[in-house]
Amino acid sequence: MPSSPTFCRHQTIPGPLVQTIASLNRPPITAKPSSFYDVPDTPICLRAVEVIKKEIPDWAANHCFRTYAFGLAIANYAGFDTEQAKLELGFDKELHFLTCALHEWGMGEEGINQSKLSLELWSAIRAREWIIEQQSSTPEGEMRPLQEWADLAAEAIARHTIEFRGFSKTVNIHTALLTLGSGQDLMGLSSAFVHPDDIKLICKKWPRLGYVDGLRALTKEEVRQKPGCLFEGCWGDFDPGMYSVSCFKGLQGSLTKRVSARL
Length: 263
Prior knowledge:
This protein is an all-alpha fold. It has one domain. Helix content is about 55%, strand content about 0%. The chain has 13 helices and two strands. It has a two-stranded antiparallel ribbon with strand order 1-2. Helix 5 packs across helix 8 (about 145-165). The protein is globular and about 45 Å long.
């Protein structure tokens, strides 16, 4: 009989998350080189890039990658990426990337129009399935704790929009960084922890492509089709406020015909 998996127990991060990071009394933020935000050059992360670019609109895929970058910047500012903090909190750059890259999978055609699940839940389920599936294509010398990663990613994805509103007293590191990173990309909620030059750099690396217009159209349809869905509770907090976020002034872009057709 196979033994039960043993999961690492790590410290959690108290909420509200933005206030927690602000209370750390860290040194001033510094600008990073573009390479700091590169996607981890591992087979599983590169496969995630391919699948998410195929499954969701370009403006949504770029949001996923910017979420990763903003989360990475916040982790660095807070000191969550130090070796000691990694041991205490369990931060892993690859897992952080996978969580962010896959977190909007529900914004694809199947998630919006063919499933009654809230897009956060559909994304979480599909991400978990996909990460576990990668076990069969991962070389023995590159083994990862994919079962544990799948669970942690799904947990973060399912909860990230309710954590915007401080739902939980504490969360794990990957839920925290997904919430903070996506909140930064949507509303600039963590701008105090990301250097202004890095905000521009990240938006140049993964352009916004009319992200707010795409999000408005897609989530309006999500709420229309799925009364009581998770996004319904926070929709009014973002729209129209997401159009006037100062740190993204001049960076929003507009939807292309090709992208618009996929809504």
